[in-house]
């Protein structure tokens, strides 16, 4: 059974930084993709960053240059480093996984329904 557990959320001032972690278990195959989605109050769920086991990454335009996604394959843990945070980054951040590589494109980030496995989310609040 696949399990994803996010951590690292919190409250920061505008311009600050946070690092989110997503610890996975049960992803037994050699290849997979893992993405970070977020959902603000009243908003749709949007993809912000993704990485696969080939090391390919993808970012939404809204976070490009500020967010960095990385993978510790040995730990099966994915990180999201978020810098220069803005109030509009406030949201619940979710980790999602699928057992195929290559789901890092802009299209994949617009398609949360294509990811089979989800964590429960971690709240990020940015105050101005």
Could you explain how this protein is built, in words?
By secondary structure, the protein is mostly beta strands. The strands form 2 sheets. Strands 2, 4, 5, 6, 9, 10 and 11 form a 7-stranded mixed beta sheet that branches. Strands 1-3-8-7 form a 4-stranded antiparallel beta sheet, with no helix packed on it. Strand 4 and strand 5 form a beta hairpin. It is globular and about 45 Å long. 34% of the residues are buried.
**Structure class:** mainly beta
Q: Detail the poorly predicted runs.
A: none
Helix share bin: under 10%
Report the count of strand segments. 11
Explain briefly what this protein structure is:
This protein has 128 residues and is mainly beta. The protein is 3% helix and 48% strand.
Main attributes?
128 residues, mainly beta, 7-stranded mixed sheet, 4-stranded antiparallel sheet, 3% helix, globular
Set down the secondary structure blueprint.
Elements: E1 3-7, E2 10-13, E3 18-25, E4 33-39, E5 46-52, E6 57-59, E7 67-72, E8 77-82, E9 91-98, H1 106-109, E10 117-118, E11 122-127
Parallel strand pairs: 2-11
Antiparallel strand pairs: 1-3, 3-8, 4-5, 4-9, 5-6, 7-8, 9-10, 9-11
